Amino acid sequence: MKPEMIYRILIPFIGTTAGAACVFFMRRRQNQKVQRCMTGFAAGVMTAASVWSLLIPAMEQSGAMGRLSFIPAAVGFMLGIFFLLGLDMVIPHLHMNSDVPEGHRSRLGKTTMMLLAVTLHNIPEGMAVGVVYAGLAAENSTISAAGALALSLGIAIQNFPEGAIISLPLRTEGTGRGKAFWYGVLSGAVEPVAAVLTVLLSSLVIPVLPYLLSFAAGAMVYVVVEELIPEMSGEPHSNLGTISFAVGFVIMMSLDTALG
Hints:
The chain has helices at residues 3-20, 32-61, 70-90, 110-137, 145-172, 177-188, 190-200, 202-205, 209-232, 240-259. It is mainly alpha-helical.
């Protein structure tokens, strides 16, 4: 694996780390409006990335199938949805602003389950980056270096608020700044690991690349619908999350179109 590729794979993780660092200079209690804006923005970026960086390339690579070129994208998308659904049912975790744990019953602490929730939902982002760079390494004609970079940058932008969303509430609950920061960093560590493993398995990935691209898209959309949208739209009612979603969507769409 070329050093340049490793650097680009690490870009999303840098976004998470920068977001987690907010705990050092932001006030102890996180403003609910700010949290909604960050969550909505992250949801918008992930949705646009799923379409322009993953689903559209998946269908383009299946162009030889003619009118049936949507089939690999549709199959992979649904597999990604059910994969994340299965993990959600098995792994004990706790969503933000909730005291009711999900997944397999466990005696794990609240902080640990919150960390598991974010880590679980970072897996598809790491896979998405890895799949795209695996295709780039194989010189796949539908994936450009600029397009792969756009995806890395887009997920890094999305990861900034995500890192803050995990660290700031921990600080609010009384966790020390340093410990809250490292929890935020740790929540994003799974992304480069998943990406590198996917690239290293490129010989297995390339033959089914359209399915894996859409698989990552399905997993990311699952996170958006199951977690991010409910969080940005909770009570009391506010349009901030919706507006932030639109801004994130447009930024990621523009990045992918301009660089891809």
